[in-house]
Amino acid sequence: MRPADNPFRSERVVSLSYRFRSETWDGLLRRLRELRFRGALVGPRGSGKTTLLEELAARLSSEGVPVLLRSAPEGAGVGWTLDPPPARADVVLLDSAERLPRLAWLRLRIVAARAAGLVVTTHRPGLLPTLATCGTDLALLEELLAELLGGPPQAPALAAARAAFELRGGDLRATFRDLYDLAAAGRLPGLPGEPAQGTAPDGR
Length: 204
Hints:
The structure is a single chain. By secondary structure, this protein is of the alpha/beta class. Helix content is 38%, strand content 12%. It contains 7 helices and 5 strands. It has helices spanning 10-14, 25-34, 49-62, 102-112, 138-149, 155-167, 172-184, and strands at residues 38-42, 67-71, 91-95, 117-122, 130-133. Strands 2-3-4-1-5 form a 5-stranded parallel sheet, covered by helices on one side. The longest helix has 14 residues, at 49-62. The chain is elongated. Residues 195-204 have low confidence and may be disordered.
């Protein structure tokens, strides 16, 4: 399969919107204001925290709230800091806060205290009050698969997706990378428009 035809190519996966399971945007924004724009989106790797943070940035921007969206890099050292520093009216949105060493985190807290808010994503609670908890399950996997594939997957593709999901411990990002590799290698039968494994193209 050509990369441009692969339903799990990166531009399609990153275009998926965040799915609330028991929350709503109105509820999330209300809680954010109650927390004075300081909170954490908490969840394991591949649970949608980055997507939710990016969508939160877009929502706040559409309401006229200035945002400073950044990501803590892999291997961030103790000298890491926001550059440029936030303006007083900015709400700082930082992805992957768990990557920061303690001294860098404390410096960020001091710098962000002068801003209008600080929202981070992190794997574990405790850095800031929890704004939302992100998670995944098989129902969410199937919902996202149907969107990527343009319809419900056939049984072989669904079985492969479930197996990858379990192997990756519920990490959707890693699951879709595995499915991309399988589709690229022609080892993911049952995609829409393709015959299920063991079925001839003419249905016999």
